[in-house]
Amino acid sequence: MSTGSRTALVTGATSGIGRAAALALADDGWWVAAQGRDAERGARVADELGDRGTFIAADLREPDAAERLTAATLQAGGGRLDLLVNNAAIYRRAPLADADPAEMDELLLINLHAAIRLAREAVRVMREQGGGVILNVSSEAGIAAVPGQVAYNVSKAGLNMLTRSIAVDHAADGIRAVSICPGTTRTPLVDAAIAAEADPAAFERRLESSRPLGRLGRPEEIAASIVFAASEGAGFMTGTDLVIDGGYTAA
Fold first, then answer.
1. Local structure of residue 64 (DSSP, 8 states)
2. CATH no. for residue 135?
3. Is the Cβ–Cβ distance between 17 and 222 less than 8 Å?
């Protein structure tokens, strides 16, 4: 249980950006509730966190997941929720004409609807305790339409507007909101997407060459931006996009 430190809830925290963020926040003094569905990976993250946090198993597709996850975080975190990092996401590639409706529904449910529900619960808690921070892990795809992934693009653009709406509606409650917009980052999700292509090596080279820095991002780089956006040093930052994409959206 948290013993008076700042409490953070990070979704999708058992791999990739979420895991890196959970550990980086813990290193920065946060007590972290790390959400995920995979108990084995969750146990590994819990071991890495030690007394700096815990793993909470939750399936964000379930209708009451946001309420139960928030309640579990408050119970484990000493009754506070100072930071929500909406990071959990899945990925599907398809242009609109070829997209499977059931797959689109599942993607939007996890990537966007669950984030909205969690943000709603977090805002209610933060408003009562005098403030907090909500970070929505969006994407370069929420800013520039990446070809062939319509549902993913829409889900991330929706997160950016969720951030802006929270910022303008709840600034007076002491709540900040920022969108973290990574470029393509070497995570298990991205590795799987690359492997699914007909020519994975060519696809990876295309991803790398599409950004001025000529490489993909690293989870630790995105985690560092999350730690900064959550910090008091970013106290005047709200309602905006923090883009870490190797120059992709500038080109």
1. T
2. 3.40.50.720
3. yes
In one-letter notation, the amino acid at residue 198 is A
Three-class secondary structure of residue 250 per DSSP: helix
DSSP H helices, the chain, are 16-27, 39-49, 65-76, 101-108, 114-129, 150-170, 188-195, 200-209, 219-230
Q: Structural domain tally of the chain?
A: 1
Q: Which listed residue (30, 31, 55, 152) is catalytic?
A: 152
Distance CA 148, CA 153 (A): 9
CB 16 within 8 A of CB 25: no
* Contact (Cβ atoms closer than 8 angstroms) between residue 208 and residue 216: yes
Residues 6+ positions from 80 with CB-CB distance below 8 Å: 2, 6, 7, 74, 125, 129
Summarize pLDDT for 10-40 with one digit per residue, the tens. Answer: 999 999 999 999 999 999 999 999 999 999 9
- Provide the pairing of β-strand 83-86 with 7-10: parallel
- The pLDDT of residue 107: 98
Q: What are 115-158's pLDDT values in tens digits?
A: 999 999 999 999 999 999 999 999 999 999 999 999 999 999 99
- pTM for the predicted model, two decimal places: 0.96
Tokens representing 39 are 């108990």
91 belongs to the catalytic site: no
From the list 238, 136, 148, 222, the residue with the least C-alpha distance to 187 is 222
Q: Which domain holds residue 33?
A: 7-186+218-244
